[in-house]
Amino acid sequence: MNLKYMDMAINEAKKAVEKGEVPVGCVIVKGDQVLSKSYNMKETLMCATKHAEIIALEKASEVLDNWRLEGCDVYVTLEPCPMCASALKQARVNHIYCGLSNLDKNNGVIIKQILACDKNNSEVLFTSDLAVEKVKLLMRAFFKNRRNS
């Protein structure tokens, strides 16, 4: 784990804010090489699947010329949704490092079930709450601004 990558993910999340997107940023690394960085683009691209994690997966797969991202670690500012957790597991990433857990505790239960070992894929390691205060500040500011608009 290297928190400089979480800081990069936070910087990506700030880009999302500039575009009026929910501030979620994602960075995918393999060893010391950053393969991809992205942020939420659902509103901008008018597509429900354009979460930061999905975009980062697509970019990393292009870099490696492979959909299998074995040995890759993912740094994301907010706990993934079930769709993103499933995609990350299918891509066979090694570890997901999360800046802040989702307020919906049921999401965490679902995510852990998705990332657990099954008949087709090995377990994806998951570590959360690595940059809680930084991400909370970003989220609070975003939603306060949205409510005041």
Beta-strand percent range: 15-25%
Number of E strands: 5
Please state the average pLDDT score. Answer: 93
Taken from the alpha-carbon principal axes, the silhouette is globular
- Rg of Cα set: 14 Å
Q: Specify the helix fraction band.
A: 40-55%
Q: Which ranges are low-confidence, i.e. pLDDT below 50, for 5 or more consecutive residues? A: none
Count of alpha/pi helices: 6
Task: Give an overview in words.
- The protein is of the alpha/beta class.
- The protein is 47% helix and 19% strand.
- It has six helices and five strands.
- The chain has helices spanning 3-18, 42-45, 52-64, 82-90, 105-115, 132-148; strands at 25-30, 33-39, 72-78, 95-100, 125-127.
- Strands 2-1-3-4-5 form a five-stranded mixed sheet.
- α5 links the parallel β4 and β5 (125-127).
- α1 (3-18) runs parallel beside α6 and α4 (82-90) packs parallel to α5.
- The radius of gyration is 14 Å and the shape is globular.
- It starts with a helix and ends with a helix.
- The mean pLDDT is 93.
Briefly summarize what is shown:
The chain is α/β, with parallel strands linked by helices and 149 residues long.
List keywords for this structure.
149 residues; alpha/beta; 5-stranded mixed sheet
How are the elements arranged and paired?
Layout: H1 3-18, E1 25-30, E2 33-39, H2 42-45, H3 52-64, E3 72-78, H4 82-90, E4 95-100, H5 105-115, E5 125-127, H6 132-148
Parallel strand pairs: 3-4, 4-5
Antiparallel strand pairs: 1-2, 1-3
